[in-house]
Amino acid sequence: MALNVGCAARPGKARKNKTGSWRVFRPVFESEQCTKCGMCALVCPEGCVIETEEGEFVPDYEYCKGCGICAEVCPKKGIRMEQEEK
Amino acid sequence: MRELRIHGRGGQGSVTAAELIAVAAFESGVYSQAFPAFGVERRGAPVQAFVRFSDSKIRLRSQVYEPDYVIVQDSTLIKDVNVFQGLKKGGIAIINTEKAPDNLPEDVRVLTLDATKIALEVLGVPITNTTLIGAFAAASGEIELDALEKALRQRFAGSLADKNVAASRRAYDGIGGGA
Amino acid sequence: MLQITEGSHAVAEIAKFCRPQVVAAYPITPQTHIVEALADMVANCELDAEYITVESEFSALSACLGASAAGSRVYSATTSQGLALMFEVCFNVAGMRQPIVMSIVNRSLGAPLSIWNDQQDSISLRDSGWLQFYAEDNQEATDLHMIAYKVAEDHDVLLPAFVCFDGFILSHTYEPVDMPSQEEVDAYLPAFTPYHRLDAKDPISMGMYATPDYYMEFRYELERAMQRSIDVIKRAGAEFAEQFGRDYSALVESYRLDDAEIAFIAMGSICGTVKDAIDEMRDAGKKVGLAKIRTYRPFPTEELTRALAGVSTVAVLDKNISLGSGGAVGTEVKAMLAGSGITVLDYIIALGGRDVRKRDIAAIVDLADKGVGDMFYGLRTEVL
Ligand code: SF4
Ligand code: SF4
């Protein structure tokens, strides 16, 4: 990468950076307990929990790092962290 | 190069006087430089301001230690400050006072006038700087009366300008300027 | 047109003629007359700029940085503690290559609190990546603002610039200044063409984070821009001379240096007093001269070395002290002349507004003759 004047850079790189491979634990969303409060989407540091058209909250596993914050905050304890098989 | 030192008290307009004299001198066709002795401005505290006059560009930046002219805006200062310090032989001191002070230095020309009285009568306030500039113009010949009037009209507006011009003119005539 | 005016007003006037689109500043003695005048000009629609009022100098320069990044020509002014409060932002402005021009109305740094002049403030930011110009009189202070914009905004440079002039000694002095007209300034200084700018439709980020793999290279690029600025300053100064007849094509001004045995090095308003003292000493047969540094950053190593060829002793007048080392300029001159055979003596002088007279300059020549230097000159030992 050649240096840009004034340390300037174009944005949008985070999308290229697929962090899903970092995961050791995978959040599994138990939709039957979900009250659609949206906390998981709000706190996800990757911003990868998306509300579908049906109003379901689902993580995008291409980016989900498996940090477990969503599981921690879910008031219904409706997100389970399961170890990935690698 | 000729140098002037103005002694006054904070609030008496010594710095304004120095600036007006420099502007008038410039308008009279010489190079001039005016600056205050950069103190902390407190009303009533002794202050100084300086003016230089020269036929060529002025480069010197030090304060004035051996003036050709001294203006003393308030004769009570003479007790507190050596206002004549360094005044050159044959130099001119202009003092605002009702009566001539004692113990004046020799070899200098001391001119006294009651600028406070003139200022009170003409301006209605005891601000003597523009009156004393008139006296300075007459005594020193450094600035022309027209140039002084121009400087005063640049600085003050309307009737205030008229009054200040009148005050300076009265002092000028009183000292015998133009004679 | 030659007119008589206060230094601060001359600087405010020329700042206006340089057509800044954004002005952000916080008032501080002795800079206040400049920003008061500019605020008036904006309020009276004499200057078509956004005047951003802020609660501190840190915010002032931060606002300037954002405005510059968005593609505006930006002006600010500060001094002393105000500049100290900008310290962090100064490095960011330079690192992001924003060509802001800021007047530094030189004043000492506290404690103890002092509103009076020395050059400790701007000197203390010598490593920040800002160009630093120093003015001897109000004419030079006026002219250097035009040159500073031209150099700073050159795409070979893209560095911010301080125009330094001594607080009170110049800022509060009335003296004649040949003030150019708006048309003349426009003819000299074209509108600002940003290298790139923040634009919501084509977003970029500036001042990105650099890992150890890249940081050194960014700093190297800054240093290269500083070095390139030397030619740009000379060019801008020559163009200025062509248009206005006052020559700033040199970074160092030589005064009576031919055949001089003792040379002073100084910056700012003290140079006027030094020149007058030199004339008197020359009349008395003393071979003295002055190398006046107009551009302290970039440091004019080549020009200064050339100017001093032939002198036997150099007396550096430093209105600052790098505590624990010596005067900042003296230290650099010593490094520059190491091995040349020229004796370099440094004098810390005029700190915190101590007045300097012609006889002080003559006294320093006597000291230099005896090889006595690297000292505070004019200490009142009776109070120590
Ligand atoms: S585990 Fe972390 S990264 Fe993955 S969805 Fe939950 S909060 Fe987001
Ligand atoms: S935090 Fe739990 S309950 Fe709330 S939306 Fe997410 S999964 Fe559903």
Description:
The complex is a heterotrimer of chains A (86), B (179) and C (384). With 86 residues, chain A is α+β, with helices and mostly antiparallel strands. Chain A has a domain at 35-86: Alpha-Beta Plaits, CATH 3.30.70.20. Chain A contains 2 helices and 4 strands. Chain A has helices spanning 39-43, 69-73, and strands at residues 25-29, 49-51, 57-59, 79-83. Chain B is of the alpha/beta class and 179 residues long. Chain B is 37% helix and 21% strand. In chain B, strands 2-3-1-4-5-6 form a 6-stranded mixed β-sheet. In chain B, helix 2 (77-80) links the parallel strand 4 (69-72) and strand 5. The longest helix of chain B is centred in the last third of the chain and has 18 residues, at 158-175. Chain C is built from 13 helices and 15 strands. In chain C, helix 1 (7-17) crosses helix 2 and helix 7 (138-153) crosses helix 9. The model of chain C has no long low-confidence stretch (mean pLDDT 97). Chains in contact: A-C, B-C. The B-C interface holds B 18-19, 22-23, 26-27, 31-36, 38, 40, 57-63, 65 and C 4, 6, 30, 115-116, 136-137, 168-169, 172-176, 269-273, 275-276, 353, 355-358. Bound molecules: iron/sulfur cluster (2 copies). Chain C: Heterotetramer of one alpha, one beta, one delta and one gamma chain. Chain C: Keywords: Oxidoreductase, Pyruvate. Chain C: This is Pyruvate synthase subunit PorA. Chain C: It comes from Methanoculleus frigidifontis. Chain C: Residues 260-361 form the Pyruvate:ferredoxin oxidoreductase core domain.
Give the helices and strands, then pairings.
The complex is a heterotrimer of chains A (86), B (179) and C (384).
Chain A: E1 25-29, H1 39-43, E2 49-51, E3 57-59, H2 69-73, E4 79-83
Antiparallel strand pairs in A: 1-4, 2-3
Chain B: E1 2-9, H1 14-27, E2 31-36, E3 46-54, E4 69-72, H2 77-80, E5 92-96, E6 109-113, H3 115-122, H4 129-140, H5 145-155, H6 158-175
Parallel strand pairs in B: 1-4, 4-5, 5-6
Antiparallel strand pairs in B: 1-3, 2-3
Helix pairs in contact in B: 1-4, 1-5, 3-4, 3-6, 4-6, 5-6
Chain C: E1 2-6, H1 7-17, E2 22-25, H2 32-43, E3 50-53, H3 57-69, E4 74-78, H4 80-85, H5 87-95, E5 101-106, H6 120-123, E6 131-134, H7 138-153, E7 161-166, E8 174-178, H8 182-188, H9 215-244, E9 252-255, E10 262-266, H10 270-283, E11 288-293, E12 295-297, H11 301-308, E13 313-318, H12 328-337, E14 343-348, H13 358-369, E15 375-376
Parallel strand pairs in C: 2-3, 2-4, 4-5, 5-7, 6-7, 10-11, 10-13, 13-14, 14-15
Antiparallel strand pairs in C: 1-8, 6-12, 9-11
Helix pairs in contact in C: 1-2, 1-7, 3-5, 7-9, 10-13
